[in-house]
Design goal:
3% strand, globular
Length: 429
């Protein structure tokens, strides 16, 4: 039963993380694109924002469903965890709910429906706020997760953990290092998504060469920098993790052996080292990063005089490489979470004690099948819609289409005059 409960949470958490990584990466590029439009007023930047923004909205909307499913786990399956430590790690999760489901969603709604109603500067400010709330949402989630990996700012009273220092919880180095690493990894994911879609259109000669060459020029040169940044922040995270959760790395250090002796004295004999899949995930996390660096550096060199456009093999490789950041992100998350085992809260509460009392094998199996099917369906629908709208190109983008605005795609408004410069007619504030 415990294995099924852990598998259920792993599936829902990983599925949600796949949405989050792309959402964070894309919103960052959207901020750059729309800021360029706000400053220059050029229609090309407006079209970029609309096209990539539509893909962002699709991914964001379906990702909310996986987030809600994941939140259900704490009450349905892991009430032992919330009963014992909910007073501590529940605080940042509550703030994250306010930020993500209220502030961020409200601002995103204003951005979606504010096209052609707000001036482009005010509309851009709203998008900046969307990005900032998205980043802060990650910070608060990792604050809660950081407590599970390195519990700080708490005290035990009446058999429960109580928050004693909110500032200590917020400045937990385990959480700060992880949040920085994940944000950088999300930038890599967003970069490869922009690159893959752009390379597909350039290879297929879909008639939007300038549009997708401009998008590729924005993302491709930045990607090696983001990969290096992610690796550097990962090293920073490991530096703290080796000190705070030494058993995650197996028998590599005397500190881990000393920690096992401490655990054995306090909680009794047990296997305090994580299963082998944790070390495998660490290895799998690193290998895709090396390929991402190699591919992007090679293709950047071929960007001189647009040589890359004529290299269909490289364009195909850039499209196929889209799975690499996802593989690296998921492996890293597995390494972080499985490496904490057998603890739900490291050194405080074991995973077997965090499960909801009275659960039966049949109940957990049923919920696993239901939730697993739901998140799998959301992922399939998300990628089907992303592929569909990405393939149609910028002329078919519905987001931000001005009344009467014409286009070359199948969704053009028939019988209405073409509005050649809609941005020039809009107020700037």
């Amino acid at each position: 039963m415990l294995v099924l409960a852990r598998l259920q949470f792993a599936i829902t958490a990983i599925a949600h993380y796949l949405f989050v990584a792309l959402t964070l990466g894309l919103v960052t590029y959207l901020v750059v694109m729309q800021t360029r439009w706000a400053v220059t007023g050029k229609e090309a930047h407006r079209r970029q924002t609309r096209f990539w923004g539509q893909l962002y909205v699709i991914n964001y909307a379906l990702g909310i469903g996986t987030g809600i499913v994941m939140e259900f786990q704490f009450g349905l399956v892991w009430s032992g965890l919330t009963h014992y430590t909910g007073n501590v790690f529940g605080a940042p999760l509550a703030i994250e709910t306010l930020v993500a489901f209220f502030a961020e969603s409200t601002l995103l709604g204003l951005w979606i429906f504010g096209w052609n109603r707000m001036g482009r500067v005010l509309h851009t400010v709203v998008l900046w706020l969307v990005a900032l709330t998205a980043y802060s949402s990650v910070f608060f989630v990792l604050t809660a997760n950081g407590f599970l990996n390195h519990p700080v700012g708490y005290g035990i009273k009446d058999g429960k953990a109580h928050l004693t220092s909110f500032s200590e919880l917020l400045t937990n180095t385990n959480a700060l290092a992880a949040a920085s690493h994940i944000l950088a990894g999300s930038l890599v994911t967003g970069s490869f998504f922009v690159i893959a879609v752009s390379a597909w259109h350039l290879r297929r000669r879909t008639g939007h060469e300038e549009f997708f060459w401009s998008s590729l020029k924005l993302a491709l040169p930045l990607t090696p920098v983001f990969v290096l940044l992610t690796a550097s922040l990962g090293g920073w995270q490991i530096g703290y993790s080796v000190k705070q959760t030494p058993t995650k790395y197996g028998h590599r250090s005397d500190r881990a052996q000393a920690m096992v002796e401490t655990f054995t004295h306090k909680f009794g004999p047990d296997n305090y080292f994580p299963p082998g899949i944790s070390q495998t995930a660490e290895f799998v996390m690193i290998i895709p990063a090396l390929f991402m660096m190699l591919i992007t550096v090679l293709c950047v060199l071929f960007m001189i005089k647009r040589n890359l456009i004529r290299r269909k093999v490289l364009l195909w490789l850039l499209t196929a490489a889209l799975f690499l950041p996802y593989l690296s992100n998921v492996s890293g998350w597995v390494f972080r979470e499985v490496g904490r085992q057998p603890w739900a809260v490291y050194g405080v509460l074991k995973t077997k004690d965090a499960i909801t009392p009275g659960l039966t094998h049949g109940t957990v199996l049923t919920s696993l099948l239901v939730f697993g099917t739901l998140v799998a369906a959301l992922l399939l629908v998300d990628w089907a819609l992303l592929f569909r709208f990405a393939r149609r190109g910028p002329d078919a983008a519905q987001l931000g289409r001005a009344p009467g605005e014409d286009g070359d795609g199948p969704t053009a408004v028939a019988g209405l005059p073409r509005q050649t410069t809609p941005s020039s007619a809009a107020p700037t504030f």
